[in-house]
Amino acid sequence: MRPIAVFGPHKLENGKTDPQVGNVDITKVQGLGNVWDEFNVEQYIGLQPELLVSSMYLKDDLWYVPAKSKDTIEKVAPTAGVMLTGRNATEVITKYGELAAKLGANLDAPEITQAKTRYEAALAELEKLAAKGLTIELVSGSPDAMYVSTPEMVPDFKLLSDAGLDIVKPKVDAQGYFEPLSWENADKYKADVVLFDSRTQALGLEEMRKKPTFAKLPAVAKGQVYPMWVETPYSYQKWADQLEELVANLRKASKLP
Q1: What's the rounded Cα separation, in Å, for the pair 253 and 220?
Q2: What is the distance between the alpha carbons of residues 20 and 22, in angstroms, rounded to a whole number?
Q3: Where are the beta strands (DSSP E) in 150-212?
Q4: Is 7 in contact with 37 (CB distance < 8 Å)?
Q5: Global pTM exceeds 0.70
Q6: Which contacts qualify for 176-180: CB closer than 8 Å, 24 or more apart?
Q7: Per residue in 97-144, pLDDT tens?
C-alpha cells in the first residue's frame, strides 16, 4: 500500500524532497499542503481516500490537519493518529510499524530488517558515547528567539535522554516543550555540544551564527554544533541515518572547560 497524497512539509523551495517526507516519491503523490495550516480539502475529497494518517502531540489533534478544516476532513475518511508526546523514537517507530502491519506491510522484508539492525547498532553506539559525559543543548532558531527544547516530550530528544546522554533541561513555558530565549540570552545554559533544528522552517546555522551571543557559545566557537533533523520520519531506515550521523559527530566532540 502506497500513499496517494501527503500534507505537511514535503517539498523544498528548490523543488527537491524535504527530508521530513521520508522515502515518499513526491512526484507520484498529490501534495495537499506544504506548510502549517495549509490543506487543500477539495483535492483531498476528490482523491476519495480510505485513510488519513498523522502524528499527534496532543490527543485527538492530528499534526498538520488545520483546526478550521478538521471536521470536514474527518468526515471524508477514517483517520489514524500516532501519539508522539512522552515516547521515544523507538517506541514511535514500533507504533508506526504496528499500524503498517495492519495495513498489509511486511515488517520482515529485508530492507526493514536490515535498517532495524543498523538502527539498533547505532543506538548501542550512542549509549556507549554517554560515558564521555558531554552536556548537550537542543536548540531551534527563529529570527527573534532561540528555543531550548526539553528532552522529555519529543521522541527525537527523549531517545537521546533515554540513551543516557546528558541533555540540558530548560525551564519550559506553559506548553511544556521548550524555553524561549531572546538571542541576547542564548548563553543561559552551558553545553559541550549544541544540536540545532535542521528543519526548513527553522533558522539555519549560518543565520544563527550572525547572532553574537550564539556565535560566542563555547560549543559553537569550538565547532561542536551539529544538525539534527527534528521530526525525522519514524522509520528504521531514516532513523538509522540520523543516529549514524549523530554518533559520528559526537565521537568528534570533547568536554569543554
Answers
A1: 11
A2: 6
A3: 166-167, 178-182, 193-197
A4: no
A5: yes
A6: 176/150, 177/149, 177/150, 177/153, 178/140, 178/147, 178/148, 178/149, 178/150, 179/147, 179/148, 179/150, 180/145, 180/146, 180/147
A7: 999 999 999 999 999 999 999 999 999 999 999 999 999 999 999 999
